[in-house]
Design a protein that fits this description.
Helices cover about 25% and strands about 25% of the residues. Strand 10 and strand 11 form a beta hairpin. It is of the alpha+beta class. One of its GO terms (molecular function) is heat shock protein binding.
């Protein structure tokens, strides 16, 4: 008994056709041989074996995927390959149902199947730009000019990447598939592996005559000037999206988006917390004691506020709706004025005398503190709630 499938069989030779035979030529050769070696016509045992080989050859060469494996030097019906009648075929005891199952297990795809060439035209990447603004600009909005360095569509070839009057050419190395395949023999049988074509980089086409402006990329880098509208109320770190103003993709693909990231410069007077503004104002001790009136210059106006007599250090005045406009909705935040009461550090003789007399009228003579239980005793009484 002869051993079958020991090596890759010559299916073309079995049918007596060339490797370039068309589907019709293969079909006609099969029908001719089938009539000659069919068991009903030719009962010779050798003819029966020949008839099986003819059927196997037609099964392989009439299937594009299996024929491709044969052209690569493999045998889809070899033992372990899962072909009909093999150990992995119907009725076999192998762990896989067929050759395709082996390929699915390794690659998750059809046996010998091609992923196809990757497109030359692809979407572009997003770009980000840092924009520094003053507090007044972030508060009330501004139309800011910006300069962007990005890839734009090549106007010479309109993204095609080819020189004028020329076209893309099918890659001769991979035949336009974008990948090359090879057959390896493993303990599981024959395994078809594919890798991107190194000649065309997986595109399936080549550029015989690249565009002289973009060198075949379909895009060029340039500096553009734009105007971005900053809405009122934006905060530091926020990003404004400009649709399709980013990088144009390879091959003239759709441009990505441009994100303008806001960075707010520190203000010399105000600090910002959300939509509220804060500032510090120093008032003399006498003004805090007697009361006074302050003129506060806000971001867009001047406001007069009263400091009540007896105002204590670290007091806060609130000016409603004098902060930053809300980004979403109407209205504005508030302005908080934090008061620092300044105590004089140097007194002349007359000032010291008058201050001592004032302290005496209030029973606050410094010299008498120790006689009345001491300064720390008074502090203890204050904490304990004694008048």
């Amino acid at each position: 008994m002869r051993t079958r499938n020991a090596v890759a069989r010559d299916y073309y030779g079995i049918l007596g056709v060339s490797r370039e035979a068309s589907d019709d030529e293969i079909k006609r050769a099969y029908r001719k041989l089938a009539r000659q070696f069919h068991p009903d016509v030719n009962p010779d045992p050798e003819a029966q074996e020949k008839f099986k080989d003819i059927n196997a050859a037609y099964e392989v060469l009439s299937d594009d995927r299996k024929r491709q494996i044969v052209d690569l030097g493999g045998d889809p019906l070899a033992p372990g390959g899962g072909g009909a009648g093999g150990p992995g075929g119907p009725g076999g005891a192998g762990p896989f149902v067929g050759f395709q199952d082996i390929m699915d297990a390794f690659f998750g795809g059809a046996a010998g199947g091609s992923r196809g060439p990757r497109p030359r035209t692809r979407p572009g990447a997003d770009a980000i730009l840092r924009l520094e603004l003053d507090l007044h600009e972030t508060a009330f909005g501004v139309e800011a000019p910006i300069t962007v360095d990005t890839a734009v569509l090549c106007t010479t070839c309109s993204g095609a990447g080819t020189a004028a009057g020329t076209h893309l050419a099918t890659c001769e190395a991979c035949g336009g598939r974008g990948e090359v395949q090879s057959v390896q023999r493993t303990f599981l049988g024959q395994v078809v592996s594919a890798r991107p074509c190194t000649v065309c980089q997986g595109y399936g086409t080549t550029i015989p005559h690249p565009c002289p402006t973009c060198a075949g990329d379909g895009r060029v880098r340039t500096r553009r000037s734009l105007t971005v509208k900053i809405p009122a109320g934006v905060e530091d770190g926020m990003r404004i999206r400009l649709a399709q103003q980013g990088e144009v993709g390879p091959g003239g693909g759709t441009a990505g988006d441009l994100y303008v990231e806001i960075h707010e410069r520190p203000h010399d007077v105000y600090s910002r917390k959300g939509d509220d503004l804060h500032c510090r104002v120093t008032v003399p001790m006498t003004a805090a004691a007697l009361g006074t009136r302050l003129t506060i210059k806000t971001l867009d106006s001047e406001e007069t506020v009263d400091v009540k007599p007896g105002t204590q250090p670290a007091s806060t005045l609130r000016l409603r709706a004098r902060g930053v406009p809300h980004l979403r909705g109407t209205g504005r935040g508030d302005l908080y004025v934090h008061l620092d009461v300044r105590t004089p550090t140097k007194l002349d003789a007359d000032q010291e005398r008058m201050l001592r007399e004032f302290a005496k009228t209030r029973g606050e003579e410094v010299a008498e503190l120790s006689k009345q239980g001491g300064f720390f005793s008074r502090m203890r009484d204050a904490f304990n709630g004694h008048a």
